[in-house]
């Protein structure tokens, strides 16, 4: 509205990609959330809810309906975001007594504490690199590290479905950008060969550097990266590899070390490993891990680190505690149990959805499960029907995905119990009938 006032001209608002019928959401701790709906007819809504969900609803003093929903949409893969007994209560709550909530300074000023360095050392050793740099936001990491690594005269070759933060970073770099077909290493090879043969447009000079950017798990597809083939092709043409592990670190591989571990690729063959702490680690912030020389350069040059308030020490403590549990440093097997639970829950949920005849995208072992709705008119209906049944699910439409590829996206957590998943599946079976979503069954008879 302020922008409109300034320029005195109405601007058509861009539709939101993640379409939400939720008005306000609050987490009630373990896996549930309260959702304040903005459905119009409250009386009908109340009756429907009391009929369907018994105690699963409540009303606010102004008479609005609050639903208790099973959270099937957050990236809380290992459950660390609300696992009070494992990480938070012990260390993080303790750290609140001793540490400032903010350092009030950027990394190059007073914003580097021993905790920041500890996180960097742990991350580097966890992913198998010499050093790491921690930034205060995952989005900021891609958006400011990529322009620090590349400039005019360089070529960025990006998977067509890469995250917006990568797109922003690539655009800000001044480098030329080409995209390759999603997860298609032969199309990547075609583009790299062409880039080597023809060089830069007009001058025909060779590119200074070529950076290939891929993701460990694609967040709208639930698919993991074809990393082996990507690395082979990049080696052949001398291109650098940048891997965004936002969704795969702490979620993939027998010990949670991400896409390299899962696909059997040596981390030395991936030049830059990027990731975030907002998903499996239940914290905030992002990192890049690479050779010591590259990290030293990024530490000095990256504006997103040098000019941005650094991560809260309390959050650093949360990240360290999560890593220690995953690596079994607390002497327990809780980390590996959580990783196994995540894999079992994900594969169980995926198999049951597929058996129902729903068209589920992505690979086995991936905790992200997009279920195709196709028709955009089903988006709001799906979300509403799920909410009525006590399920909070993210629904996605244009422009995040093509208009006729609308979908609902489930994110499974190690914290979900089998009973909760079974209850969700039972409700989804009804929603599938109601909205005629059994595309896979009708296709294959
Ligand atoms: N990269 C990818 C692939 C993502 O999906 C996201 C956000 N979901 C980010 C980067 C940004 O991370 P953050 O939310 O931690 O800022």
UniProtKB/TrEMBL annotation:
Belongs to the class-II pyridoxal-phosphate-dependent aminotransferase family. Its EC number is 2.3.1.50. This is serine C-palmitoyltransferase. Keywords: Pyridoxal phosphate, Transferase. The lineage of its organism: Eukaryota, Sar, Stramenopiles, Ochrophyta, Bacillariophyta. It is an enzyme of class 2 (transferase). Residues 68-427 form the Aminotransferase class I/classII large domain. The chain holds residues 245 to 689 of 689 of the full protein. Its cofactor is pyridoxal 5'-phosphate. It catalyses: L-serine + hexadecanoyl-CoA + H(+) = 3-oxosphinganine + CO2 + CoA. One of its GO terms (molecular function) is serine C-palmitoyltransferase activity. The keyword Transcription regulation does not apply. The keyword Transferase applies.
